[in-house]
């Protein structure tokens, strides 16, 4: 099992996708690739799996499968990417294992965990300029309230 991240509910979540071997699937949160490997193994040479991760570190977990395409992007752009790959309306199933990977928690430099005395960061996509420390230290009360209000829905 990958040290990057141990996938949770692996069997039940893959079974729930009810995979057709020739189908097109999306793993919106690739991470260590545990779920993705299970999906890819159930596809034949006509099937395809698109995987998203906004963290560039996840790319190291690809294993060279020809039926898997990694898209290093936030999955909120999923529709745009499916159009780009000309599979819009043809996706058979989407898996999203939302949250943070163990790798992100375990790497002190990522600033996700209070286990380490490191600067707060918490950017999954390190191309983003804004860290959690910037938000906490520079936003005023009204801006912070706006964030909490928009995420509570
Ligand atoms: C819980 S881990 C997924 C683990 C994966 N299922 C596995 O088997 O290893 C979540 C991953 O999703 C990524 N992620 C979280 N939110 C994302 C988003 N909005 N767009 C793209 N990737 C995202 C994180 O960078 C992290 O690598």
Structure at a glance:
With 153 residues, this protein is α/β, with parallel strands linked by helices. It contains 6 helices and 4 strands; from the N terminus they run αβαββαβααα.
Write the layout of secondary structure elements.
Elements: H1 10-17, E1 24-27, H2 34-41, E2 48-52, E3 68-71, H3 78-84, E4 93-95, H4 102-106, H5 132-138, H6 141-151
Parallel strand pairs: 1-2, 1-4, 2-3
The chain binds S-adenosylmethionine.
Walk me through what this model shows.
Helix content is 30%, strand content 10%. The protein is built from six helices and four strands, in the order αβαββαβααα. The protein has helices at residues 10-17, 34-41, 78-84, 102-106, 132-138, 141-151, and strands at residues 24-27, 48-52, 68-71, 93-95. Strands 3-2-1-4 form a four-stranded parallel beta sheet, with helices on one face. The protein binds S-adenosylmethionine (SAM). Residues 5, 7, 29, 31-35, 52-55, 58, 74-75, 97, 99, 101, 124 line the site of S-adenosylmethionine. S-adenosylmethionine is lined by residues 5, 7, 29, 31-35, 52-55, 58, 74-75, 97, 99, 101, 124.
Describe the main β-sheet briefly. 4 strands, parallel
Hetero groups in this structure are: S-adenosylmethionine
Count of extended strands: 4
What oligomeric assembly is this protein in?
single chain
Low-confidence stretches: none
Spatial extent as radius of gyration: 17 Å
Distance N to C terminus: 36 Å
What is the number of helices? 6
Spatial arrangement of strands, main beta sheet: 3-2-1-4
């Amino acid at each position: 099992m990958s040290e990057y991240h141990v996938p949770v509910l692996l069997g039940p979540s893959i079974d729930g996708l009810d995979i057709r071997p020739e189908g097109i699937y999306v793993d919106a949160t690739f991470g260590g690739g545990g779920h993705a490997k299970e999906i890819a193994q159930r596809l034949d040479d006509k099937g395809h799996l698109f995987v998203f991760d906004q963290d560039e570190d996840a790319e190291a977990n690809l294993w060279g499968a020809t039926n898997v395409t990694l898209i290093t992007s936030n999955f909120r752009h999923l529709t745009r990417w499916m159009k780009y790959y000309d599979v819009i309306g043809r996706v058979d199933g989407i898996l999203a294992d939302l949250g943070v990977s163990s790798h992100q928690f375990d790497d002190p430099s990522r600033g996700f965990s209070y286990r380490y005395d490191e600067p707060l960061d918490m950017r999954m996509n390190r191309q983003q300029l804004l860290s959690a420390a910037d938000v906490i230290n520079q936003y005023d009360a009204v801006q912070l309230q706006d964030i909490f209000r928009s995420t509570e829905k």
